[in-house]
Design goal:
homotrimer; alpha/beta; Rossmann fold; 7-stranded mixed β-sheet; elongated
């Protein structure tokens, strides 16, 4: 029986990136749809639920993607509501690569520090990847300083996360004022830059002055780097005594996690591969 | 040579239901198109006609679907006009599952009564499935009472059917007035409910009072049932002395017919799998 | 590793013709997109570039098609700009079959005359196929009379071609006036009709009076023929002492070239199969 992956993409043209990874992960047939929103997803899911015997449903799965992460979350919510009882399909959500990137980031950090000892400052922490990295780190007992332009935005992001994870270990921070920025970074042993593409978030002199810093991860793939002095290709590269990763350096692990997640979709018909589940896959890969 | 199925769907997103069945029936490649109307179907058919040698054309076929049955019929008409001489492709039309559902309904009835002895009342008889069930039953020598809200609508439906089959055995009936309803049901040995989803068409007391009734088929898959007291899962289930079928009980046969029809498309390049042809497939499956 | 072809089509529904040929040429997976323009092509190309290792990129390729040849050219330009260094994919452009048809036309002529001795009049020479046939013939040392309704249009087409090939051997001609028409044809040994579908460009008496004429190719597949008296099915058919080809007669070679070109896409990741490269493939097939 052929493994069918139903790709629901919130962009008008379904991502070729996600399609190639799906093919290489072993999906036999891709049903790729663009322009998907919660209101048009239901019949597509019904068609997957009602065509094969319950014992065969593990061979039909759903992938939710697209550049708009909030749109992907809304589709996932709708898809999960469409299932009933055992008549369901495994689903993975990775809009804009947010879950696989956040998982790969934390996996990279875990190679150098026990996660329970991590005290991380996340710059651009309220974006999709920053939020997810914070969620994963919090679930592993780490401390997190969630940085944003305003304290209100940072606090709202923490409030959002509190529905998913114990956020007592997350401190919202504003990083616009020099004093706020310094306070956010002071004493952190991990630095993550998860801001918009092509925006520098911290100067070389600033992070080199953080005496406690052990690991720095820059997720920006468009020059200039978010963390000045970190190269896109850095992969556990030692710089000024700090272990550095760039976007491409993290990308290999991200791709392995994405591929393994697609493969897990076809092991049973009840997987929900969200942020936490995708990180668990990342941990098993190492 | 790979078996290619060109899926022309009148809905904007081509049905995943039809795609999964096509894959499981052995189509190697699906070219799935949404938003199809007669005016944009022609170049898609030409591309199928002019790419392989005549002797190989049986490996390229066309499936017409979508939720709008009239739209599917218009596409089928256009597709058949596009062919010329032996340069043609096999085609199946099953918009909204109307042909396979009607065929499966009559196949179910035929397990319990010789079709020539059937005297069926069809409630909601002017919808796509009701019309097609009437057409198939008429072709097999049964008597049919075609029920609708008004006599005019029922008569218009009979007029439409008269282009496809001898309708001398079909009586149009209005089923809105209590007297009309009773007259339509009086003496029938088969009851088919083919109305809109989630609308009850006959109460339990009413059909249980039909002393001649032998078989009842409810095609409604959304509660409440069209025939009160019949369960969606009923499959030749005895209830008050009547053999009952629900939508899912008929669904297994419907799926087998759909699958077999897709497979037949690839046996030659000149099949036209419309209502009659799809019922013939249903009969051969039994 | 599966061979993936990303089909970028400028029409809203991607061509089934190009899809069937791609399947039969051995592409394992087709990612077919309609409604493509330069502005939405980039992320689709990025997804192809960044998902497989450089050494595996030869298994991902791009086909550009659609009925609008200028739109296809603009997409090709954008796609080539999107690549950088060795991170690239092989690409073929054949909007409206223009490159494969022009190549097949010249291959057909070369069976009967050395190309360096060809002196061809191209009627409808400013359309996509006429232009490309002129380009190919010029590259092989032939003389060309490029016919158009006005001399200005013909001259503008030559100017366009001068960016691609040495056009000193191409003479722009107006073919509207009887005198212009006669001058354009006088002494030519090859006649190509590459005008709009269903429009006769030259009467039988006119070409039969061309005493120098050896080969006539009519590329019009919709009656009436562009060259009166040539049949669509003609394939090296002798008529009044002239070797004649019709659209379908050239079509077999066109199809072989198209198929071989798709196969070459997957031999390395750096092919650009444009007019010249597609003709080279045609020559190797013969």
């Amino acid at each position: 029986m052929k493994r069918i992956l139903i790709q629901l993409d919130s962009d008008s043209l379904p991502s070729t990136f996600d399609r190639v990874v799906a093919v290489d992960a072993g999906a036999d047939e891709l049903f790729s749809y663009g322009g998907i929103a919660p209101q048009n997803a239901e019949p597509l899911i019904h068609g997957g639920m009602f065509t094969r015997k319950p014992s065969d449903l593990k061979n039909t799965a759903v992938f939710i993607g697209g550049s708009n992460v909030a749109a992907g979350e809304a589709i996932l919510t709708k898809v999960l509501k469409t299932f009933f009882g055992p008549v369901r399909l495994s689903v993975m959500m990775d809009s804009n690569g947010s879950n696989t990137t956040a998982a790969a980031t934390v996996v990279a950090i875990s190679r150098h520090l026990p996660l329970a000892e991590v005290d991380a400052v996340i710059l651009g922490g309220t974006g999709p990847v920053g939020l997810r990295a914070a969620q994963i780190l919090a679930s592993q007992g780490a401390k997190i300083r969630l940085g944003s332009r305003t304290l209100d935005k940072a606090a709202a992001a923490c409030e959002h996360l509190s529905k998913l994870v114990d956020t007592s270990c997350i401190t919202p921070c504003e990083t616009t004022s020099p004093a706020g920025f310094d306070a956010a970074c002071q004493g952190a042993n991990v630095l993550i830059a998860a801001g918009a593409a092509g925006v520098q978030l911290i100067a070389a002199a600033q992070w080199q002055a953080m005496s406690s810093l052990k690991v720095a991860v820059d997720l920006n793939a468009v020059p200039p780097a978010g963390i000045e002095g970190v190269d896109m290709l850095d992969k556990a590269k030692e710089r000024s005594g700090v272990t550095c990763y760039g976007a491409i350096g993290v990308g290999g692990t991200k791709m392995k996690i994405h591929t393994a997640a697609i493969q897990q979709l076809f092991e049973s018909n009840d997987k929900v591969l969200d942020t936490a589940a995708i990180f668990a896959i990342g941990q098993s890969i190492g």
